[in-house]
Amino acid sequence: MGDEFECPFCHIVQDFRSEKRWRRHAFSDLKPYVCTMGSVECDLRLFGDSKTWFEHELQTHRCTWVCTLCRAASFRSSHAFRAHVNDVHPDLSESQARVLDQASRRALDLIPALDCPFCDEWEQKIRADMRGTQTGTMSSSASAAEVSEHQEGVSETESQNPVDVIVVERSQFRKHVGAHMEQLALFAIPPAMDSEQGDSQAGSNAAMQSAPDASSEPSGAELVWPPDPPLHLAAFRGDVNEVQRLIDDGADLEAGGETWGTALLAAEAGGHSQLVTLLKLGQSAASRDGHLESPMHVPPSPETRLGRLIASSLLLTGIVGTGAYGVVYSAVDTRSSIRYAVKCLEKFNPDGSPLDQRQVAGQTREIRLHYLASSHANVVSILKTVDDVDCIYLVMKYCPEGDLFYNITEKGLYVGDDELCKRVFLQILDAVDHCHGLGIYHRDLRPENILVTNGGETVKLADFGVATSSERSEDFGCGSTFYEPPECLEPKGPYYYCAPSDVWALGVILPPASWGEKSILKLSKDAFKLWMMMRKSKDKYLVR
């Protein structure tokens, strides 16, 4: 390794500096990994790396379900969990039940060794090695290194009681089963790929990709597609950065492949709408200019979308607000005259470049968590999502009376009315408690993200743009400074806990409601100043 040579599968000249890198590249071309669960919908899925393959099995098949609404005992199948939802939560709609199904999945940490679909010897080998270790003797067929390798990741309970089912950690299961599939793929490689005559009849991928002789007559044989180029693989995986790099390097968007046909179809098969948009823009640029260029799409200004009709009948009529994570429009259904709020999440950055994987994951997380929390009366409901070419629209219930900040500082709605303040704040507490019960942490609680309806009697929590399902976070500074707790303003460790962060923000929101005027700004700033003063004089202000 270390010399440049042409890969026999994808015909890309690369410099592989280690055998590990070469194997990883070769297997990405061979796609040896397949779903081993025997599910019909997974029969045609091929994976170019073991991590993606096994993540699919963990998220789709090798998992349990723990209801996030009632914390019921775990269920071993989607069918059993759906029966639980129908019995215990019959009021959920079909779409809400699907979201709950996804949110309640927990990947298995331990997997029976007997589940290996390729061999029966693995469990027997582990048992033999465990018996040999327990008696102080070593099986003649296994070395100490082999015993160590097999027992690494084996459940401690199973080690003490080998009569029970032997289970292993999922990382070891992936390594073992993946090795079987890699070996099968290597067996399939023709032995004469580098024939000096160059006329190998072994049917290799390189031979299939070679062009037919123009002078030959059509044989009527079945058309053989060339192997999938790297662009197809990256598009199917949803790797935005890799697709962009390949396009910049001149990858052919129209090139065919054996699995999906084109890169665009690969992205559609993988369910990556942003990449579908990116590839369509690239094809349009190539056909217009006669050559391939990196597709760019500068998002329009918020005003440009006014008057646009989405979902066949929803007309965007005004701008409610703008923020770092999207624009919120007012809209009206042209058929029913019902008004809605529509949040627009851009698929492209202001400079025209596509969102990276982290940004796409953030949008997906916002939609999923907000949709899951929508079942509460004091959370703004997401009614549906609309996936457009350049953005994703979230259609929500419209709250025309504005946010809590406006109602406190401009209208003085709650000034001196302690009973009303109490009722409203209890609604906020109830909504936050509901979210925390689902494992959702808002991380940006402030009056601007609480909407008012019913003449001030009802409030609703909104904007889950930075919400997370992680109990602790390393993402400091994602909320608003004056509502952040001390551990976020001056970190002492690598992470902070998200639930206490929400509670701190609630404490800053409560008092100004009955004070009126601009006191809400003063209190939030005073809370910040108080923390700064306590930080400088710990012995005076903090009781140990």
How would you sum up this structure, described in words?
By secondary structure, this protein is of the alpha+beta class. Among the domains are: 230-289, Ankyrin repeat-containing domain (Serine Threonine Protein Phosphatase 5, Tetratricopeptide repeat, Alpha Horseshoe), CATH 1.25.40; 302-397, 2-Layer Sandwich (Phosphorylase Kinase, domain 1); 404-541, Orthogonal Bundle (Transferase(Phosphotransferase), domain 1). Helices cover 40% and strands 14% of the residues. The chain contains 20 helices and 18 strands. The chain has helices at residues 19-30, 50-60, 78-88, 94-103, 121-134, 144-151, 156-160, 170-187, 205-209, 230-237, 240-248, 263-270, 273-289, 357-373, 404-409, 418-437, 486-489, 498-509, 519-536, 538-541; strands at residues 4-6, 13-15, 33-34, 46-47, 63-65, 105-107, 110-112, 167-169, 309-310, 314-323, 326-333, 339-346, 382-387, 391-397, 450-453, 458-461, 472-473, 496-497.
